[in-house]
Every structure is written in C-alpha cells, then in structure tokens.
Design a protein that fits this description.
The complex is a heterodimer of chains A (about 400) and B (about 325). Chain A is an alpha/beta fold and about 400 residues long. Chain A has 2 domains: about 30-170 and about 305-375, Rossmann fold; about 170-295 and about 385-405, Rossmann fold (3-Layer(aba) Sandwich), CATH 3.40.50.2300. Chain A is about 40% helix and about 20% strand. Chain A has helices at about 1-25, 55-75, 95-105, 120-130, 145-150, 170-185, 195-215, 230-235, 250-265, 280-285, 305-315, 325-345, 355-365, and strands spanning about 40-50, 80-90, 110-115, 135-140, 165, 190-195, 215-220, 245-250, 270, 295, 365-370, 375, 385-395, 395-405. In chain A, the strands form 3 sheets. A 7-stranded mixed β-sheet of chain A has the order 7-6-8-9-10-13-14, covered by helices on one side. Chain B is mainly α. Chain B has one domain. Chain B has 11 helices and 4 strands. Chain B is globular. The chains are: A alpha/beta (about 400), B mainly alpha (about 325). At the A-B interface, helix 1, helix 8, helix 9 and helix 10 of A face helix 1, helix 8 and helix 10 of B.
C-alpha cells in the first residue's frame, strides 16, 4: 500500500522531470559529474554538426568528448580543476563554424576545442582559434592543407601552431584506396566528388596514385551536394564501363548515389573515404549497397582492446546516439587536450594565461589512446598512418584489411 | 544514340517532376497573381505525409497496395497544409500591397522547413513519439514499394527505372484529370472566370474565396503526388528537398508562361531535358553536371528575352 502511494507521487514527478529535461536547452548537456566543488573550471569546447545531414557523426563526437571528460573528472586527472564540455553546432557550414569559434575565443575559460568534422569548416575556424591561442584538435579533418599548407606536397609548412588532428589525411587515404582497388584487379575507375575541400582532395590524391600504378580514370565527374538525383551523371559514366566508382564526399550523397547507380544498371562497387564510412550510408544505399567499399583511418575500434573498452564505456554511459565513425578519435582528441592540460594547468591561476603552455604541451603528448598510440608530428598531424578498408557485407560495414600506409 | 535516348529518358523523368510542381505555381498565379514560394514546401510535406502513412499504418510492408494509401496520405498532408496556409497567411493579406504576400510566402517556406526539421518525430516541446518516427534532421530513406521500385527495365542499351515510369505516368494522368476539371466542371469554369476577372466573376455569383482555396488545393494535390514520385525515385527524402525543387519548378512555370497550365507542363519537361542534355553534351570546362543548372537558367533568360510571356504564355502580358 505504501509502495503504491510512492508510485502515485513518484511517477508524475518523474514524468514532469523528463518533460522538463526534454524542453531544456542544448547547452546544459555537457559537464562532468563527481568532482568536488570549489574547483576551478576549464572548458573543452566541441564544434561539430549537431544537426543536419551529418549530425550522426557530430553527436558521436560530442558524446565521446563528454565521456572522456567524465572519466577525467571522476579520476581527478587535473587536481584543483573541473573540466566541462561545451558543445556548439557548426551545422557543417564554414560560416556557422566561424561564429562558434568566435564564441569560444571570447570565453576566458575555454582551454581547448575538439572539432571540426568537416575540413572546409576547419579552414574557417583555424585562424579564429589561432588568434586566441586556443588549441584545436580535430578527430576527423583529413584535408592535408590544414596542417601543411597549400603546397603540402612540395613545400609543407605548418599553418597554425594551435591546430592538431588525431586522424590521418587524404594525402594518405586516397592513395591507400587506389592501392587497394588496383590490387583487387580494378583498373578502370570513374571518379565523382562533391566539390567540397574534403571530396576534391580525396579524389585528387586517389587519381594521382591510381594513374601512377597504371590504372585508368575513365571519367571525372562532380555532383552538387544539394541535389538528390544523380541520374544524369550516372548515365554519362555508364557507357565508359568503369569497374569501380571512387567517390569523394560524404554519406548523405554517397548512399543515394550508390542506390541510384545500381538501380540504373551500373553494378560496380562504389568506394569512398571515411566520410561514407557510416551505418547511414547503408541505410540510404539500401540492399544494393552490398560490396561497396570505404577506407577509414586507424584500425577498427572494436579490434583493439582499448577500443573495445571505449565502446563498452560509451554504451554504459547511455548516450542516445552511437559513437559513429569518429567517436574513438574524438575520445583520443579530448584526452590529448586533457593530457596537455595536466602539464599546463598545474599551479595555474586561470585558463587564459596558460594557453601558450597548453600549445607547447599538446605538441609533446604521447600516450596510448583507444585508436592506438597518440602523438603529433611537427605539423600537428597524427603520427599514426594505419588505415582500414571496409566493405558492406549483409547490411553492415565489415573490415577487410588493415595496413600501415607505405 | 543509346546515351542520347537515356539522357532523354532521364530528362523526361526529372521534367515530369518539375511539371507536377510547376502546375501549383501557375494555378495560384493565374488566379491571385501571387508567387507562392512556399509551394516547394507543400511538395516536401507531401513526401513526409506519404512516409508517415507508410511508417504508421503499414510498418515495413512493401506491397503495391500500400502505394495508393501513401498517395492519399501525401495528398491529405499537402492539401491540409496548403489550405491552412491560404486561410491564415494569405487571406488576411488579400488586399495588401503585392510585396507583403510575397515576403509572407518566403517566411512560410522557412517556417515549414524548420517545423519538419525540428518536430517531425515528436510533438513540439515534448519528446512524445509513439510511432517511433525517424529524426528529420538528416535524410530519411523512403519506403520502397514492390513493382514501382526494384530492378530497372532494359530496352536495348537504355535503362528505364520503374519509378521513372511511375513519375511520367502520374504526370500524364494528372494532366488529363486537370484538363477535365478545368474545362468540364462547374468549379473549373469558375476558376477560369476568376482568373480572367475576379470582380466580374464575383458579380456573376461565383464564390471567389472558395475558388482560391480550390486553386491552392489543386496545386497541393499534384505537389503531394510529386513528393511520392521523388521519394520513390531518389530513395530518400529530407526537409530541404522542397527548396531546390520549388525553385526549378518555378523556373519551369515561368519558362512555359506563368498562369498557363499547359505551359507549366511543357516548361517542366523542357527544363528537365535541357538539364539532362547539358550534362552529357556540353564539353569542356563549362560542361558536365555542375553546369547543368547554369544552362537551364541561360535557357530561361533566352526565352524571356525573345518571348517574355514564356513558351505558351498569352501574347498580351499585363501582369507580373
């Protein structure tokens, strides 16, 4: 009887609480728990697309950073300081990203930022954060110019000393895909990209290596990322009978492209970079996406012991969205900032005064992350050059080969 | 040759879609001289109506018999939105300066996009989602229906997709029914009368307000069907799909002669074919898929320079 009345009072309370929390604003989602009060606050920002087409990837980044910060606070990684996560939506757009970066630059407590997802967005956020001397670690930018400048092939020159990344670049990813396709006996390939920095960089790097190996690019096309019907491009490619299509871009276009390609009778595998390595590619591509290929950076998260632990912790934390393709890289990116802060925040009175020290410390971090060993070279690039080829097998991405790029 | 026919088929398919949407612009313009820029969103909401019907009532079923229900769902959603829009956004501005309803149309367009983007899978301000609808913030796969989707037909070297046949067929059927409705029914003749002279039509006992609602609803029916056709063709829908499609359809309506229903159909088909051919046959730097929209608009400008009234427009243009 007593229990009934508890239920009677409790259930409406819980429902009211749930309803209220659903109404709450986005900004209160972060923050770790379990730290003692009286600590000083240091904020780790997240800039990623939290809405729109790419939100599946962006929310995975946000929650992975939250997980890293929660664990750091729980273990009191930086004595005297409590870390908080502050996510800002960049919508995958350079102008929105720049606004987010400007907002971070104006906050004295921001110690570092994880993001962006898109290379072209990072291009516009890099200078803003660099001026404020805030370190930025991207889990996902693969465009080589972000670290080595426009002449990355001939005269690499570090562009911003605040910018680091935990993933490998298109300069490696494109050629890696070319080598895989050529080895698999595919010598005639058509390329398509979406005219964004990421897609174009990927296709250029792919084309260079593929022709060097002796393969032929039968046609090079582009699509408009706002379009959703690619029939006219497919019709143009089909008579050249390519044995494969290499796509530079992301899954919102790649999935429908794969589906429409096969519906139009062009039954060859579509291969892409890490931008299409997402479960949503298969959802959008439908049953005919079987056999499509993607490269992604690092070894599969669930094949490393540390990666398995990360996925288990992530699942245990009960986030609503999956960790997605960049979860593990975001977790490592956040931890690299936390490791740098352990050095720079020691004895510091506020965050803003130790920003240069944080930059210096971040360049020297070296630890075992969930994607492998995490360290940065003189350009801010990850020292890891391991990549994996994935294939769509019965409705899921399955790793087919993991190698260090030579 | 095969490639030419193939691009022709692609162009006709795309053009049929433009034509279905363009009719909505042209019917409303013919009666109100209002360019309803929110019409693209009516098309988008039609597609979401069909998706919702399929997910809520026929979870996971792909039989052909589901399709009519999806079309009805699409029409209910799009007509409902169009009628509400007319009643609460345009009617209060009926006698306002012409710029006011135009800006309102743009506002409604943004409002409807954001409404779908943020609230498709739950009621506003709650997280109540009894049917487990997907999040509309990113592209949603559209249900695939037996017979109308699936392996394409091969005729010689030309591939004809099943959804393309559905789209072209839908346009033919709608055009025939529309012709019958406009020319052979009392309401249709009333519409013609109002478009010629609203004041005189009112004196003749025609309920002008009712005719205007019918015009909005008529455009919405076709837009809803177009939404289903696009979903079947592209295999996915998203909250932004109405923007580009609406812009293209508006272009088609102007190309054919705005206010003229046959013109909208012809304009849509011409626009679609030009896009297909431009991708294929314009060589070099200015060719290929990225330039197809440019060529479509070049055509529009040329037509407007030499025939300001559009391809099938009436000679004397005293409006717009």
């Amino acid at each position: 009887m007593h229990q009934r009345s508890v239920l009677r009072v409790g259930a409406p309370l819980i429902i009211a609480a749930l309803a209220l929390s659903a109404c709450g604003s986005r900004s209160d989602t972060g923050s770790g728990s379990g730290a003692s009060s009286g600590n000083k606050i240091a904020i780790i920002g997240v800039m990623a697309p939290l809405s729109g087409d790419l939100s599946a990837l962006g929310l995975g980044i946000q929650h992975s950073v939250e997980l890293a910060v929660k664990e750091a606070n729980a273990s009191n990684a930086i004595p005297g300081w409590t870390l908080q996560v502050e996510p800002k939506d960049d919508e995958g757009k350079p102008d929105v990203g720049k606004n987010a970066a400007t907002a971070f630059a104006a906050e004295p407590n921001v110690a570092g930022v994880v993001g962006n997802l898109n290379s072209n967005v990072a291009q516009s956020t890099q200078p803003v954060l660099a001026t404020a001397k805030i370190v930025q670690v991207s889990p996902a930018n693969t465009n080589p110019t972000l670290t080595k400048g426009a002449d990355f092939k001939t005269a690499p020159k570090r562009t911003y000393d605040t910018y680091f990344r935990t993933c490998t670049t298109d300069a490696i990813q494109g050629p890696f895909a070319a080598q895989y396709m050529f080895k698999a006996g595919i010598t005639k390939v058509a390329t398509i990209h979406d005219k964004k920095a990421y897609g174009q960089g990927l296709v250029e790097a792919f084309t260079g290596e593929f022709t060097k190996l002796g393969g032929t690019i039968v046609d090079a096309e582009t699509i408009n990322p706002d379009d959703s019907n690619y029939q006219s491009v497919i019709t143009k490619i089909k008579p050249m009978s390519p044995q494969g299509v290499y796509y530079g871009g992301e899954y919102p276009q790649a999935g429908p492209l794969s589906q429409q390609m096969k519906a139009a009778g062009l039954n060859v595998p579509l291969m892409g970079g890490d931008g299409i390595y997402d479960p949503k590619f298969i959802v959008l591509g439908g049953a005919t996406s079987a056999g499509d290929l993607a490269t992604s950076v690092g070894a599969p998260t669930d094949q490393l012991a540390a990666g398995k632990k990360f996925l288990a912790d992530y699942a245990a934390a009960g986030y609503k969205d999956p960790a997605a393709a960049y979860g593990a890289y975001s977790f490592d990116a956040a931890n690299s900032i936390i490791n740098a802060l352990k050095v720079s925040l020691k004895g510091a009175k506020d965050v803003a005064s130790v920003r240069q020290a944080t930059i210096d410390a971040l360049g020297k971090v070296s630890f075992e992350g969930v994607t492998g060993h995490v360290a940065f070279d003189q350009y801010g690039d990850s020292t890891s050059r391991v990549l994996t080829v994935y294939k769509v097998v019965s409705g899921a991405w399955a790793p087919v080969s993991t190698e260090a790029f030579k | 040759m095969d490639t030419f026919v193939q691009q022709l088929v692609n162009g006709l398919t795309l053009g049929s879609l433009y034509a279905l949407i363009a009719v909505g612009y042209t019917v409303v313009y013919g009666i109100l001289q209002l360019i309803n820029f929110a019409h693209g969103e009516i098309f988008m909401i039609g597609a979401f109506g069909a998706l919702t019907t399929s997910l809520v009532l026929f979870r996971g079923q792909t039989g052909l018999w589901v399709l009519p229900f999806m079309i009805i769902g699409a029409i209910i959603a799009s007509v409902g939105t169009a009628v509400l829009m007319e009643r609460f956004a345009y009617r209060p501005l009926r006698n306002a300066p012409r710029l006011a309803p135009l800006i309102t149309a743009i506002g409604i367009s943004v409002f409807l996009q954001e409404l779908v983007r943020l609230n498709y899978n739950h009621l506003p301000f709650t997280s109540w989602n009894p049917f487990n609808l997907p999040d509309a913030k990113s592209r949603i796969p559209f249900p695939q229906i037996d017979v109308v989707t699936g392996p394409a037909f091969q005729i010689g070297g030309v591939t004809i997709q099943r959804s393309a046949i559905f789209t072209v067929g839908a346009l033919l059927m709608c055009a025939a029914l529309l012709w019958y409705f406009i020319n052979r029914t009392k309401t249709g003749r009333g519409m013609q009368a109002v478009s010629q002279d609203a004041d005189t039509a009112r004196l003749m006992g025609i309920n002008v307000d009712r005719i205007i609602v019918v015009a909005f609803a008529l455009g919405a029916v076709l837009a809803g069907i177009a939404g289903v056709a696009q979903g079947l063709q592209n295999n996915n829908i998203d909250f932004r799909m109405g923007f580009l499609a609406g812009l293209k359809a508006f272009t088609a309506a102007v190309l054919g002669g705005i206010g003229n229903i046959q013109g909208a159909v012809v304009g849509g088909l011409v626009l679609g074919i030009v896009e297909g051919m431009a991708t294929q046959y314009i060589p070099g730097q200015f060719g290929g898929s990225p330039w197809k929209d440019v060529w479509a608009f070049v055509l529009l400008i040329l037509v407007l320079v030499f025939r300001p009234q559009g391809l099938l427009g009436a000679k004397a243009v005293d409006r717009a």
